[in-house]
From TrEMBL:
Gene3D superfamilies: Endonuclease/exonuclease/phosphatase
EC number(s) reported in the record: 3.1.11.2
Highest taxon of source: Bacteria
Gene of this entry: xth
Keywords annotated in UniProt: Hydrolase, Magnesium, Manganese, Metal-binding
Name the UniProt record assigns to this protein: Exodeoxyribonuclease III
Transcription regulation is among the record's keywords: no
Active-site feature positions: Y109, D153, H258
A GO molecular function held by the record: metal ion binding
Residue sites binding Mg(2+) per the record: N8, E36, D153, N155, D257, H258
Chain positions of site Transition state stabilizer: N155
Organism: Streptomyces armeniacus
Length: 267
């Protein structure tokens, strides 16, 4: 596995009508992680559900038309697991992982939350259960000589450099102190022990942003958020040689409100 791309498609059926299939056909990725698929596999056109050259795994949500994650891999996975052992989120369409040679790769769609609502409480419950799982996954994988890569829409901007209008969003879901602290724990070598691949390769850059609201001129003004991450165990992260956001050339060429984020690894 040398190249991995993650993208929130904002509804796979809609994305397919706007250019997703052409993008995928041109991709050099070995693994593609999708979030917010918002469809059962049988609702997808055959060429979208099972594109040529790919093995596909879908984890739809039990709530119809919401969430949903998927993995597309060039090689057939050795094993696949849906969910992370927390009953509340077992059928939420928010996490799926697959074992490939030497690495476990996962697609994540963390709840977005909304301050002062049950959606934020759900997000907090998800985070509280997910961090211990990720820590255990890293430890278990290391014991077996494997690496881990968790890609997806984490719905949290970690630092001020990760969103354009950070001052105006200090009390907004996605940039709350407790959410940012949670990501800090994930990246602490003494706690979660993961590495933010894109930030490691672009330490001084604002962004690169991966999501822009459809409202106003956010995309044209690059008023975005960096919330789509590739989080890797240290051994794999140390092999990262390139990471970039596949930002569309123009607003009209977008097929999602997110852009694909790609990480390239050396041998």
């Amino acid at each position: 596995m040398q190249q991995v791309t993650t993208v929130n498609v904002n509804g796979l059926r809609a994305a397919a009508r706007k250019g997703y299939a052409q993008w995928l056909a041109a991709s050099d990725a070995d693994v593609v992680c999708l979030q917010e698929v918002r469809a059962e596999p049988h609702q997808l056109l055959p060429e979208i559900r099972e594109p040529d050259g790919w093995h596909t795994v879908y984890a739809p949500s039990s709530a119809k038309g919401r969430a949903g994650v998927a993995l597309l891999t060039r090689r057939e996975p050795e094993a696949v697991r849906v969910g992370f052992g927390e009953p509340e989120f077992a059928e939420s369409g928010r996490y799926v992982e697959a074992d490939l040679p030497g690495v476990t790769v996962a697609s994540l769609y963390l709840p977005s939350g909304e301050v002062g609502t049950e959606r934020q409480a759900e997000k907090e419950r998800f985070m509280a259960a997910f961090l211990p799982y990720l820590t255990e996954l890293r430890q278990r994988s290391a014991a077996g000589g494997r690496e881990v890569l968790v890609c997806g829409d984490w719905n949290i901007a970690h630092q001020e450099a990760d969103l354009k209008n950070w001052r105006a969003n200090r009390r907004s879901a996605g940039f709350l102190p407790e959410e940012r602290d949670w990501l800090t724990r994930l990246l602490d070598p003494a706690d979660g022990g993961y590495v933010d691949v894109v930030r490691t390769l672009h330490p001084e850059q604002n962004g690169p942003y991966s999501w822009w609201s459809y409202r106003g001129r956010a995309f044209d003004n690059d008023s975005g958020w960096r919330i789509d991450y590739a989080m890797a165990t240290p051994g794999l992260a140390g092999r990262a040689v390139k990471a970039y956001v596949e930002r569309a050339a123009t607003h009209d060429e977008r097929w999602s409100d997110h852009a694909p984020v790609t990480a390239v690894f050396g041998p």
